[in-house]
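Morning, I've got a small favour to ask if you have a moment. You're getting the sequence in one-letter code plus the fold written as tokens. Thanks so much in advance, here it is:

===
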Amino acid sequence: MTSLGDAELALCHQIRQELHRYPELSGAESDTAERLQRFLAAHIRPDRVLTGVGGHGVLALFDNPHPGPTVLLRADMDAVAVHETSVASYRSVHEGKAHMCGHDGHMATLLALGFRLARERPEAGRVGLLFQPAEEDGTGAMAILADERFQALAPDYVIGWHNLPGTALGTLLVRAGSFACASCGMAITLTGKTSHAAKPEDGVSPQVAMCRLMERFSALSTPVENDEAFALATVVYARLGEPAFGIAPGDATVMVTLRTAADHRMQALRQKAEALVQHEAEQASLQWSIRYHDEFAATENHPAVVALMMGAAEEAGLVAETVDRPMRWSEDFGQFTRRFQGALCCLGSGESCPQLHNPDYDFPDALIEQGSHFMLHAAKRLLSVSMPA
């Protein structure tokens, strides 16, 4: 298998930095999609390109007339609402929006794979490169799956990946079964009655209930990180009343992220959290409501696809390791592995690389060559190997 040429690699670095400079949040990736379309048309020229898939998704297809499996490889497109502190020439031009999760690098790596596939098209079957919007809020994968054009594609196998700071550059990390946690955002509203700050007893304040909830949510967490027991409740936001010195508060909001290693544990955690809210609200004579946001299923990796990934990494000259517990973060790629045989993995982005969502994070361009080489090996293996159900 040939390496990327210097000119091709330079183009991938260039588009990575261009995408980094113009980030867009979940559901608003129209400009990102246009940049990808122009790059594909000018430099790679797949057999087909589908646009507007599941919103702003772009799907590049490399076909072969001989029958065979359909292999889908996915990169995410959206940025996050973080203020970038980099002084790089390609730093974000949109204040408060930045590619602090490395999705710019994921897209560039998939484009690098496109260069390789353009030269080494499948001998049978087809390969699809999916640039997926709205991963960060958990809505993108479901929108892709609901698109009739994607349903007609009916992939046999799906592969996703994410860069991982704190791990040696290019090292593959993967495991069979639960690889990324299920999670959801729980928004709690407590409603009482305002009063004059001079006579707070005339109102119904949610202050005590809010504070007790923030304290007691931590008791829902378990310290054991394994498939059966791991659970985490993290308070991410709280607001009490309004910023007015003359008014005792009458309402409060608490936002909590719930996280479990497997889907079947999530419902139990939600029920415990809801019971806690009801108890504290009733004790304080408050009305209460709960809304859920950013709901992610656990990503379950198919064991046979994991074994294939390990072999592909070794063929690509990468170190491959299995991890003994799921990643704490969540990924909407779990919606794909619910329906198709597939797996999500991580590739190390360097031991000294700042952590994901840090304001000084920047995707390492050196990972583009390694990642695309690994994915080409993985795709070719899936195209040629008969997988068990």
